[in-house]
Amino acid sequence: MEAVRQAADRLQQSAAKGRSSYPPMEAGALSPRGPDPAVWRQSSGVACRTHATIQTLGPGALARALISLKRYFPDSAVWVSDPTRENHVAIFAGAGFEVHTYPRVRQRHPRVNFCHVAASSSAAAAQHCAASPLLP
Question: For the Aminotransferase class I/classII large domain, which residue ranges apply (predicted)?
Fold first, then answer.
């Protein structure tokens, strides 16, 4: 098909120029340590005992983990940052969670006080992933 050939040509030209519609997979210095030092502060999720860090290998593993969480916490909702990746919203919603958003704080040391963001029966997702455009 001519349309497919033209689309493939445009993709190759963009790739040759170093352009991509999807950001690179490198997450920077935070990647090996995970999100805790960058997001949680002692007066927030740690003190309230409302946070946990879950690391998965890709969206499929995340979806499986969320299905288990929904089973044990059926009345929970999930809060994700705005902006976020649309596929993250779809993954949470696909697991059966009602998805809400909170504003992403962009500061030198971004922190979110989840005690004030979500009710105790909700999960606030700080989505630290290698492809996240939200990292400082």
Answer: 3-108
